Amino acid sequence: MRALRLPGWGLPAILTDVERPSPRDGEVLLRVEAAGLCHSDLHVLDAGPAGMPFPAPFTLGHEIAGRVEAVGPAVTDVALGDPVAVYGPWGCGECPRCRAGMDNYCDRRAELPWAGAGLGRDGGMAEYVLVPSARHLEPIGELDPLQAAPMTDAALTPYHAIQRCRPALGEGSTVAVIGVGGLGHLAIQILRAMTPSRVFAVDVRDEALSLADRCGAHLSTGISGDTSRVLRTASGGHGVDVVLDFVGTDSTLDLSAGSLRADGELVVVGSGGGRLSVRKPGALPQGARISLPFWGTRPELTEVISLGRSGALHVEVERFPLSAALEALARLRSGQLKGRAVIVP
Ligand code: NAD
Ligand code: ZN
Ligand code: ZN
C-alpha cells in the first residue's frame, strides 16, 4: 500500500510502498478514509538528525478516520465496516493516567518508543492503519470522515486546553486566540459554542483573519507593534483573561504575556520553540498562570465528536489525494492553507 513516510530523522518525507499490516491480538486494522495534516508534522520533519524521543522510520498522520477492515482475535466490541475516528495519543494503556482515559499524560510516556499514531508508530497517511487497541476507536456515525479526522487533534487539542481554563472563561471574560490555522479556527468555534467569552483572533495572514470572522470571533487583528494594546483596549484596558497561543514562538509568547490581565491564564499550545522567562517581577502580570496542555483525553474525544455530529463544529477542509501529500506539506509550510489539509488515500 502507498504511505507518506518519514524514512529517518533529518530526511525529507517520501511517498512509498509498504506492506499492508494484519491485526493480531487486540489490534484493529482500519481502511483510512481521511487523515489530517498537522503543523506538528512539520515539526517532526524539521527535528533534524537528533530527532524526537521516539525512533523513525514511520508513516505520518495522527488525525485519522476510517472504517474497520479487520480485527485481531481478542477484539469483540467492534464490527467490520464500522465508521470510526482514532484517539491518537496512544499511551501504555496500564498506568493510572491511561486507565482514566488520559493517555495524553501517560506516566510511562518517556519509556514508550512512540508518542502516538504517526509519531513513532505508523499513522494514517496510508491506505490502512493498524490501531493497537479498540479502546482508541470513537464511532462517528454519519459524520463525514473528512470532518472527523481533524477533530481528533485540531479540535480535541483546543477543546482540552479550553476545558482546563473554563473557570476563567465566564460571563464578561475575554480570550485571545493567537494563530488561526487548523487548531485556532476550531478553538474559536469551541469557545463560541461553550463559553460566553468575547473572542479576539490574531494572525499574520488576512485569509486566516477572515476565517476567524466566519468562525465567530468578535474581533480579529493582524500583528503589529500595537497588537497587545489593541487586545488590552478591547478587554476594557486591563488585558485578556486567557490567551491561547497556537504558535508558541518568542514573539507570540511576548505578545501573550503583554496582553494578559493580572490573574490571567496563558495557555501555550503551539510548539514554535519560543522562550518566555518566568521572573518576578517580569513580563508576566501578577497572578498569571501558565500551562502547556498536550492533545486531549479519551472522554473529551467523545465530547468533541458529539459536538461535531451536532453541527456545532465545522472544519474548514482542503482536500488532497494521498498522491499529492507532499504538495499539501509544502502548502502548509508556506502558509497557503486555509483551515486543515486532509489527505484522502
Ligand atoms: P497551522 O499552520 O494550521 O496554523 C498556524 C497559524 O498560525 C497560521 O494561521 C499562521 O498564519 C499563524 N501564525 C504563524 N505565525 C504567527 C505569528 N507570529 N502571529 C500570529 N499568527 C501566526 O498550525 P496548526 O496545525 O494549527 O498547529 C499550531 C501549533 O500547535 C503548531 O506548533 C503545532 O505543532 C501545535 N500543536 C500542539 C498540540 C499540543 O498538543 N500541544 C497539538 C497539535 C498541534
Ligand atoms: Zn497534531
Ligand atoms: Zn500509561
Provide an overview of this structure:
With 345 residues, this protein is an alpha/beta fold. The longest helix has 20 residues, at 145-164. The protein has 2 domains: 2-139 and 315-344, Alpha-Beta Complex (Quinone Oxidoreductase, Chain A, domain 1); 157-291, Rossmann fold, CATH 3.40.50. Strands 3, 5, 6, 9, 10, 17 and 18 form a 7-stranded mixed beta sheet that branches. The protein has helices spanning 39-45, 96-99, 145-164, 182-194, 206-215, 227-234, 250-259, 298-310, 325-333, and strands at 2-6, 14-17, 28-37, 58-59, 63-71, 83-86, 116-117, 120-121, 128-131, 137-139, 174-178, 198-202, 219-221, 240-245, 260-268, 289-291, 317-321, 340-344. The mean pLDDT is 97. The chain contains 9 helices and 18 strands. The structure holds nicotinamide-adenine-dinucleotide and zinc ion (2 copies). The site of one zinc ion has 9 residues, from helix 2.
- The CATH architecture classification of the largest domain is Alpha-Beta Complex
CATH topology of the largest domain: Quinone Oxidoreductase, Chain A, domain 1
Q: Termini, distance in Å? A: 10 Å
Q: Proportion of β residues?
A: 15-25%
Q: What is the overall number of helices?
A: 9
| Overall 3D form | globular
Tally of strands: 18
Low-confidence stretches: none
What is the helix fraction of residues, given as a range?
A: 25-40%
The CATH class designation of the largest domain is Alpha Beta
Domain count: the total is 2
Mean pLDDT: 97
Structural class: alpha/beta
What features would you highlight for this structure?
single chain, 345 residues, alpha/beta, Quinone Oxidoreductase, Chain A, domain 1, Rossmann fold, 2 domains, 7-stranded mixed β-sheet, 25% strand, binds zinc ion
